[in-house]
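Why run this: before we spend reagent on co-expression, it is cheaper to look at a predicted model of the complex and decide which construct boundaries make sense. The entries below are exactly what would go into the expression plan.
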Amino acid sequence: MDVGTALIAQSHRVDLSPTTAIVWALWLLVGFAGIFPGIVAYMVWLERKVAARFQDRIGPNRVGPFGLLQPIADAIKLIVKESIVPRPADGLVHLLAPVIVLASAFLTLAVVPFAVGLVPIDPPSGLVYLIAVSSLSPLGIFLAGWSSRNKYSLIGAMRAVAQLVSYEIPQVLATIPVVLWAGSLSLVSIFDHQAKFGWNAFTPPGLLAFAIFLIAGVAEVNRTPFDIPEAESEIIAGYHTEYSGMRFGLFFLAEYLGVFAISCVATVLFLGGGMPLPFSSFPVNLIDGSVGSYILADAILLAVFLAKVLLFIFAMFWVRATLPRMRIDRLMNFAWKYLVPLCVLNILFAAAWFEVVVRPGRIEAGRWAVGMIGVGLLTAAGVQLVFWANRKLAAAAPIDADWPAGGAARGG
Amino acid sequence: MARSLFLAIAALGLLAALGTVLARNLVRAALHLVAFFFCVACLFVMLEAEFLAAVQVLIYIGAVAILLMFGIMLTRNAATAEADLSGGWRVPGVIAGLCVFAALAFGINNAVSPSGSGAWSAIVARPALEPAEGVAWKAERSRAIDDMPRVVGEQFMTRYALAFELAGLLLTAALVGAVALAREEPAPGDSEPATAVEAEAAVGTTP
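The model came back. Tokens follow.
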């Protein structure tokens, strides 16, 4: 165990040698220009297939075997379609908006450690970088809605910014326990920590943080049940109503890239990256310094990593195919009255877990059991407390007060 | 190399700052401001302070600029949000800007320091920027870079605790004020606040 973790716990400092330049160029060309858009294209195919199965249809099956060439046909269609810009639109900003959203989605992937040594960059403050670049996408969405000069676009943009900014807070707060335990903001260090102490999701505060992170993550990528910014039955397509052709394609790409990125980040932060077993650093301890052992360990890590990511992606498609859209005020209530208090309490529970289990420096069965029972009961009590308080608050309000057509009809 | 890069980024930043002041359209001005914040983040990266760069992007672009645009959106007609700084306000505006510039120039040049301690650059827990000889300097330097979040956090909780708490108090006051302004007179027995407005105002506390 220690051999493996020592091998990957290398310095964050990168020398700008020709080798580094070649590695980065390969990442850009193969990863960011080739593999990631390819994954996105087949995610779209998978979503259409999965959604079709949920609705008792067959899904795309005309282009190629099982409709496998459908994404390519879609891409060609989007590229050759005319890109229409409304006459009163702000031309430059209209072009800039999808670029910002897409750049935000791509930049998120730059710090994800897919396997040992297979990470584009590893800055010492990787998690802050991640949050920072993902906070760029509300800006792009807002500009898209504003520059279109379309009321539906503007409503969509306002909804999007309100939602994204609100859900960013529980998302960020949910990562604090992970940072606290790993003692570092680097995603590679967080991976190392989980090789030593087991997956973060298998601790009581970690499980709560994981659930909050996933809910907030689904909201961050605007997917059902949090897709009010682009609710097609209410406001056409929200902020990208006035986009067509490849500019719309960029939004589309960014949305699915966002789903992929959030799945990758959740896997790294809470599910131990590519490790197949929760309390063993199994493929990492195979590494003995030889090239063959690296390739073997990385192949296992990468395969398991992709399997976990696929699980998240499937769960998001599943949710989308089964749940209806939430109403905007309930969506906001959920973020501010449930998720944020839970996150704040959870930081305290995470500190308790740190003192009991992580502080000694290595995992011990006795302390672990004490932590599981003690902190577990504490966490369950905290969840109960937040739900109880909210029930009391809701009971104090008149019935149907939150329903616009109800007795106490108010704006807001 | 580094110098020409710095000059390019600084020139871009100045252009963006000029654009902020001169743009007629308020959203465009805010967009120029975003570009300026980004240039500042680039300068932080050039100083090997990635943590500060990320925080700069997170707070100033991710929160402040978005909030700014939201404010423009909610208070004006979006399509024709013209800056209407009329003649009467131009001179006080320029004076206020010059005062801020003077205060910053004064502060950055180490003109003041707490009584009983030396200049800021002498006591900061960070190795010198000029490359020195030897492995020890390299190790110290890379440790300083890796540990930047810790160092910044410690400074916030010790040396700058008062400023930190004051900023928090100010933001809380702003939050409470915004809620008080935005909240309609509640009907008797109706304790639920205007959620969307509250949510949006609370964003101000995230930095």
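Chain B has a mean pLDDT of 76. Residues 50-75 of chain B form the longest helix (26 residues). Bring this page to Monday's planning discussion.
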